[in-house]
Amino acid sequence: MLETGEMLLKKLMTVAGLMLASLAASVPAWAETPAAAQAKWNMPVGVTEISRSVHSLHMTIFYVCCVIGLVVFGAMFYSVFAHRRSRHPKPATFHESTLVEIIWTVLPFVVLIGMAIPATGTLVKMSDTSNSDMTIKITGYQWLWGYDYVGEGVSFYSRLDEASNAARQLDSGIDPASVENYLLNVDKPLVLPVGQKIRFQMTSADVIHAWWVPALGWKKDAIPGYVNEMWARIDEPGIYRGQCAELCGRDHGFMPIVVEALPQDEYEQWLAKQKGGDEAPAQSAETAAPATEAAATESAVAGDMDADADAGESEAPAAAAGDELSRDALMETGRNAYQANCSACHQADGNGLPPTFPSLHGSAVVNGPVDAQIAQVLEGKNAMPPFGYLSDKDIAAAITYTRNSWGNDAGVIQPAQVAAAR
Amino acid sequence: MAHEHAHAHDHDHEHHGPPPGLMRWVKTTNHKDLGTLYLCFSMLMFFIGGLMSLVIRAELFEPGLQFVHPEFFNSMTTMHALVMIFGGLMPAFTGLANWMVPMMVGAGDLALPRVNNWGFWLLPFAFALLLSTLFIGGGAPAGGWTMYPPLVLQTGAAFPLLIFSIHLMGISSITGAINVVVTILNMRAPGMTLLKMPLFVWTWLITAYLLIATMPVLAGAVTMLLTDKYFGTTFFDAAGGGDPVMFQHIFWFFGHPEVYILILPAFGVVSTIIPTFARKPLFGYDSMVYATASIAFLSFIVWAHHMFTVGMPLTGELFFMFSTMLIAVPTGVKVFNWIATMWKGSMTFETPMLFAVAFVFLFTIGGFSGLMLAIAPADFQYHDTYFVVAHFHYVLVPGAVFSVIAAIYYWIPKWTGHMYNEKLGKLHFWLSAIFINVTFFPQHFVGLAGMPRRIPDYAVQFTDFNQISTIGAFGFFFAQFLFIGNIMRCMARKGEKAKARAWEGAQGLEWTVASPAPYHTFEVPPQIDDAETQAAH
C-alpha cells in the first residue's frame, strides 16, 4: 500500500497545525497568570555574570543544534518527498562513500571543539570559589533549608510559607492560583547583599537535596557527609526563587528557596537586626532548632510552631527542660506541632495514609513504651524523616497529643524526657 | 536415507510442531515461543507502566494535589521507571532477539534453549514481587529508580522485595545476553562472516556484552544497599565512613551503558527497516558497525555526566563533559547514514517505515537535547528539571519504543503469516506521533523555565504546558489500543496472507523461509546468498 507524497505532506501539515493550535490555545491563559513575570519558555538570563555565561552557552548550543537540525532534517524530508517510489521509481544502488563518511565524522568534531572551548572557560570560572567576601552555609533537611551566616552568628530555618502549605494539602479546596508565589515562597528568605562574592557551602543532615536558584545560574547537591561549594555575585537587588532539585522524599516538591538580594547598606541593617535585635541568644545551627529564628515576630501566623518554639526556648533550654508543663498546655502546643509537622502524612484525624503511613488510632508505637516513640520521632523510620531539629517542647507536646487523642490514652510526657533521650 | 528421513519429517510428525496445551508455554525451549512470551510480557508491562504514567500526568494536570498523596506520587514515578525499563523495553528487545537472531544468522534455535526458558520465567516472578510492594506496609519504593541512598534506605517493608526483584531481573538479562552472544558467535550459517551479519544482529551482540558487563555492577550496588539497611554495613553512610556519592558512581557505571542497552537494538531495527522500504542497501554498513562499537565503548566512560552537580573536581567535570560530547560523533554518523540510505531510494511508507522515519527525526531531537545536557555548565541549570525528562523520553519513547513498534509491524507477517491492517497501522502511527510530541515537547519549556522533575505539584506558571502534556499522555496511551487490536487481528489469523518475503525490498535469511516461520526454522544450515546479506560488497 502506497502513501502518495501529497497525502503525506497534507498529513504532516495537519500534525504541525494541530500542535501549533494546541500551543496557541494556551497562550491567552498566561496573560491571566499572576506570576507572569517568571520564565515561561526558556532559561532565565539570571542576575549573575555566571548565569549570563551559562545562558549564552545554552543559547549558542541551541542555535548550533537548530542549524544542524535544519540541514539534516531538510535532507531527510526532501528525500522523503522527492525519493518516494511514485516520483523516483528506480532506487540508486550506492551504499558507501569513504570520503563522505570521513567528512561527516570530522565536521561534528570541529563543531564540538568549538562548543567545548567556551564551556570549559565558564566551568573554570564557576569552580573558582576563592577570594570570597562572605560565606553562607546551607543545610538541607527533610524538608526545609537551614542557613548559617558563617562568622556572623546568624542562622535560621527557611520552610514553605503557610499559605502555600495550606493550599497544597490534598483536597484543600484552596485554588493555588489565589496564593501568591504558590510553592515558591518561604516563611523566611535567605537575605544576601548585592555586589559581594558570596561563597555557598552546601551539606545535608539527612538525605541528598540540591539547592537551586535559576537566577544564580546553577544548582548544587547538598549531600550528607560532604561540603560542596559554589559562589555567586548578584548584580541586582530583587527576590529570586528556586526549589530543591534532588528527589528527597515525600515533600520534595515543597521545599522552595527564596533569595532576597538587598543593596549593601540595607543588608547590613538587616544583619545587625538579626544579631542584636532580639534577646534570644545566638546558637549554632547544629543545636539551634527554630529557636535561633530571632525574628520571631516575623513568623506570621499565630500559633505557628516556630513561634511556640521560640517562646519555649527563649527562657533558656535548661529551664524549659526542668519545668513540668500541664496536660492542657502540652495538648494545646501539641495540636499545633502535630498539624505543622505530622498531619501531612498521619492526617489531622490521625488516620494516616496506609500502607505507607500507619493510622495512629490504637497504634502500637503511640500506645507503647514512650522511649520508643521518642526515638522514632527523633531518628525517623522508613518514610518518616527525623524530627530532631524541633524543640524538646514541641516534640514532647506532639507526642503527648498523639498519645491522648483519637481514643488513645497513654499518658503525658515532658520536654525533659525528650532532652534526656537526645 | 538421512535425506529421506529429514524430508519425511518436514510434514506431519508431531514433534515438529509445538506440543498442545498450556504447558507448552511453560515448558517451551523454542526460541519463537519464548520470543512471543517475552513480547507479550513486555506489552503487559508497557500498559501497567503506562497506567502509572497516567496517574502521574493526571496529578500534574493542575497545580495543587487532586488525586494522590506526594508519597504515592513518588512511588508512581519510581515504579513507572522500573517497570518501563526492566519490564517493558528490555524484555521487548530480548523478545525480538529471541525471535529474529537465530533466523537472521541461520541457526535452528538459540544456543542454550533451557537457559532461555529460565531467563524468561524469572521475569513474571520478579515483577510480581516488585508490583506487590504497592500493597504492603510502608508503601512501594518511592526513592526514584536510581535508588540513591540515603533516601532509598527510608523505604519500608518493600525494600528487600525491591532488591530481590532487581536481582532476578538482572539474572534474567544476563542469561538472555549470554544466549545471544553464544548463538551469534557459534551458530552462524557457514559463509555468514561477522561483517555479513544483519545490523540488528550486530547491535544485539554489542548490547549483550553491555548487559554482561553492567548487570553485575547493578547487582553489587543494590546488594550493598541491602547490607547497609539490614546488616550494619556503612558502604554509603558517611557517618560510618562510607560515601553516598560512591553509590552514584557505581549505579551510573551500570546506568549509563544501560541507556545504550535500551537504544542499540533500536538502531539495529531501524537499520533493517529503512533499507527495506527505501529499496536500497544500508549506507555505510561498516561505519554503522564501528559507530555502534564506539558508542558502546564510550558509554563506559561517561557515567558521571549524570552527576555534574554532585560536586566533582573541575578535572572530573571536564573529562566527563568532553567524553560525553564525543558520543555525538558516532551517533551523528548513524543518523547521517540512515538519511543517506533514504537518499535517492525508492521509498514507500508502510507503517514500519513511518515509525522508522519518525524514529530518526525524533530520536535526533532527543540527541540534540542530549548534546545540550553534555555542556556541564549549562547542565547545572538543566539537571533534574523537566528538560531532562523531555530529553530521555524523546530517546526512549519515539526512540526505543517506536523502534519496537516498527519491528513488530515489520516482522509480524513472518511471525503469524498474516499482514496487519495497514489503515489501522497508519492511524496508530499518526496518533502516536502527534500525541508523543504533544506530551513531551512542552516539557522542554517548563524544564528550562525552572520546573524540577519528580515533584507532585508545581508553581502556577507551569500550568499550561503541563496541561498540554497530560492531554498528550492520555492520547498516546489510548492510541496504543489500535496497536493491540492490529496485533490481535494477525494472531487471530485474520487479514491478508503474508508471502515468504512479506516486503518487496526485504533482505535477510528470515525472508527465505515460509510465513509463518516453521516451528523449527533451519534444520539444515541455509546457503548464504550474498544478495541476502546487508554488506553485499
Automatic annotation (TrEMBL), chain A:
Amino acid composition bias (Low complexity), ranges on this chain: 279-300
DNA-binding listed as a keyword: no
Chief localization: membrane
Domain Cytochrome oxidase subunit II transmembrane region profile residue range list: 33-130
EC number: 7.1.1.9
Transmembrane segments: 61-81, 102-124
Membrane topology category: Multi-pass membrane protein
Annotated PROSITE patterns: COX2 (PS00078), COX2_CUA (PS50857), COX2_TM (PS50999), CYTC (PS51007)
Cofactor(s) required for function per UniProt: Cu cation
Reaction catalyzed: 4 Fe(II)-[cytochrome c] + O2 + 8 H(+)(in) = 4 Fe(III)-[cytochrome c] + 2 H2O + 4 H(+)(out)
Domain Cytochrome oxidase subunit II copper A binding: 131-273
Cofactor binding annotation: Binds a copper A center.
Keywords, in A-Z order: Copper, Electron transport, Heme, Iron, Membrane, Metal-binding, Respiratory chain, Signal, Translocase, Transmembrane, Transmembrane helix, Transport
Signal peptide residue numbers: 1-31
Region (Disordered): 273-300
Domain Cytochrome c: from-to ranges: 329-406
UniProt subcellular location: Cell membrane; Membrane
InterPro entries for the chain: CcO_II (IPR045187), CcO_II-like_C (IPR002429), Copper_CuA (IPR001505), Cupredoxin (IPR008972), Cyt_c-like_dom (IPR009056), Cyt_c-like_dom_sf (IPR036909), Cyt_c_oxidase_su2 (IPR014222), Cyt_c_oxidase_su2_TM_dom (IPR011759)
Keyword Phosphoprotein: no
Family per similarity comment: Belongs to the cytochrome c oxidase subunit 2 family.
PANTHER family according to UniProt: CYTOCHROME C OXIDASE SUBUNIT 2, CYTOCHROME C OXIDASE, SUBUNIT II
Function in brief: Subunits I and II form the functional core of the enzyme complex. Electrons originating in cytochrome c are transferred via heme a and Cu(A) to the binuclear center formed by heme a3 and Cu(B).
Protein name stated in the entry: Cytochrome c oxidase subunit 2
Species this chain originates from: Banduia mediterranea
Gene designation: coxB
